[in-house]
Amino acid sequence: MSFLEFLAGRWTEILGLTLEHVVLVVISTVAGVLIAVPLGLAITRLPALGRPVLGFAGVIQTVPSLALFGLLIPLPFIGGIGSRTAIIALVLYALLPILRNTVTGVRQVDPAILDAANGMGMTDWQRLTLVEVPLALPSIFSGIRIATVVGVGLVTIAAAVGAGGLGSLIFRGLAMLDSRLLFAGAIPSAILALLADGGLAMLEARLVASRGAPTS
Amino acid sequence: MNGVAISFREVTKSFDEKLVLDRVSLDVSPGEVLVLLGRSGCGKTTLLRLVNRLVDADAGEVYVGGREVADWDPVELRRGIGYAIQGVGLLPHLSVGDNVCLVPRLLGWDPERRRERAAEMLRLVGLDPREHGDRRPDQLSGGQRQRVGVARALAADPQALLMDEPFGAVDPIGRRSLQEEFRSLSRELGKTVLFVTHDVTEAFRLADRIAVVADGGIRQVGTPREISDAPADALVRGLIEGAA
Fold first, then answer.
1. Which residue of A has its CA nearest to B140?
2. What is the predicted ipTM?
């Protein structure tokens, strides 16, 4: 039986797992954005927050993903086996790239623009919403793109704690010494990562083009 | 509408222990163009920024229209004073027209009135609203951007204008025509203008009166003629002769 015939026989299963995979990535990235963007903006207003928050997010990045999934399992309420544990870990991993790009995006706004904004009589909130966030958007967006692509890879490992997704095919293939199963999980997840990167890059380019260059 | 008077009374300001302004007093009459002329680091920009409270004085008072600026809410004060700077600071994600009408937008004008005002202001500074109004700032030349900066400073009909090297980033030929147009524009509008520059020729071309600033103090105040005829000291003489 060739590999293609093998795939043809299992395409519904592969499709279902791919969908599960996508849903996990989307949920965790969206949650990551909802937490990290406001937190990043808060850091630009309260610089004292920057060191502890970015430090915490940075430490998480250094924990190997398999270990983080393992660490979460015994925790009450948030832990256990299943997709919930996986999503929590995935959100934690999504925080750093989005946080860092939000903070840098706001900090690299041309000082002349900020001076003009202040001199025109903008309140701090108006400066944030009318000037800083729009100008930081391309940077924030590329942080989201990084988080998404990394998330596609991490979700495969989340299968180890029973989250489902394409990783379950890979782990099954490993356990059964079946390289066809392994590839049936690995190839679609690689394609998914490339699609996510390419798609978001296109969106990003359109965003930048429609708003003019980020600096004048 | 006529301009307001701006006065500085014994104003002192330090940054990090370094004295930038040392008991400076100066009166700007309503409707006049007063140029603060000096080398970089002399304190002229700080003096300008005291007026709209981008900087607050350590001691002394600043009055705009007879009212001490410390009594104003800074946001409200700034919306009533036009502000144009060297980097221009146009918002790259907004159209030229939207940039011009930022202060009116902050003041809550409705969109229709803002559009009309933007067109009027662009014509005033020699730009065609139909040709330039919908463009992005990065599609304009450096000189055109500076014009937009001036239009923006004027949009809410402020009684005073603060300008910090607003033509600094333009080539010499473009700068000359900007200066000449600005001179006739400011005469026509009758607004009080406080204008910072290190360019002696620019100062002499624009000013009703010049205040020569050096080492945190004002060395001489007078009309361009008074200053060129009788420089108060060697420093003033050196500054204006250096340009000749």
1. A216
2. 0.86
Distance from C-alpha of B51 to C-alpha of A119, rounded to nearest angstrom: 10
The shortest CB-CB distance from B93 to any of A114, A122, A135 is to A135
Indicate the residue of B76, B90, B102 with minimum beta-carbon distance to A216: B90
* Residue found under tokens 């978001």: A200
Among partner residues A110, A114, A211, which is closest to B93 by beta-carbon distance?
Answer: A211
Q: Are the beta carbons of A118 and B103 separated by less than 8 Å?
A: no
pLDDT tens profile B157-166: 998 999 999 8
B102 CA to centre of own chain: 17
From B116's Cα to the closest Cα of chain A, the distance in A is 20
Query: How sure is the predictor about A42, in pLDDT bands with cuts at 50, 70 and 90?
Result: very high
What does CATH list as the number for A3-211? Answer: 1.10.3720.10
What is the identity of the amino acid at A97? P
pTM: 0.83
How far apart CA B204 and CA B57 sit, in angstroms, is 29
Boundaries of every domain in chain A: 3-211
**Coil/strand/helix, residue B101:** coil
* H or E stretch at B163: strand B160-164
